[in-house]
Amino acid sequence: MTPSFEKQRVAIRGMHCASCSSRIEKVLASTEGIRAAAVNLAAESLEVEWEPSRLSLGDIAGIVKGLGFELVLPEKETRLTLAITGMTCASCAARIEKVVGDMPGVRTMQVNLATESAAAVFDPEVVSLRQIREGIERLGFKAQVASLAGGSDFERQQEEALIRLAAMEKRLYPAFAFAVLLLLLSMGEMAGLPLPVFLAPHHAPFTFAF
Known about the structure:
Layout: E1 6-13, H1 18-29, E2 34-40, E3 45-50, H2 57-66, E4 70-72, E5 78-85, H3 90-101, E6 106-112, E7 117-122, H4 129-138, E8 142-149, H5 153-187
Antiparallel strand pairs: 1-3, 1-4, 2-3, 5-7, 5-8, 6-7
C-alpha cells in the first residue's frame, strides 16, 4: 500500500543564520516518516511533507524544539474580520453569508451591511483565508482583511505582505503619472513635442529671468 503524505508550511522562531536553517533541514530530512523539509530563513518558515501514520506535526515540532528552535503550530480555529466593499442591500450581505457560510471548514459567517464588514470563524486546516476572499470576490465584492486572530503565523505574514503590496500599488499610480509628466517636460522637445506655453522661453521669458 502506498503511504499517504501531508504537506504544510508553518512558521519557525529562533533562527539567526543559514547554518540554523540548514541544521533543521538536515535533521528533519533524516527523520523517518518525513519525505521533504525546506526551511526559508528570510520568511522564517518551514515547508514539510510527512507521513501522518508515522508521526504528527506535533512530533516534528518536538524535534525542532530539541534543536533549540520553536515551530509555531497553527491553531484549530481562526477568527477573521473582513472589510467588504460593493454591498448595496441586505440581499448582498445575505448572499455572502450563504456562500461563505456553506464552504467546508467555515464555522460561522456574519456580515454587517451598515459597517461594511464581516466576521468569520474557520478551520485553517480545511479552508484557507485566500479561498474565503476569492469566494467573496467571485460574487462581485471586494474583501480586505481587517484583523486575523489564530491560524498560522505564516498565513498572517502572507496577508500582511499582500496588504503592504496593495498600499504600494496605490502609491505607484500617482508616482508613475508624475514621472511621465516630468519626462515629457524634460525630454519632450527632443522627441518633437512642444513645451507648454508657460515653460517655452520664447513665449514666457520671465519664467527664466529669476
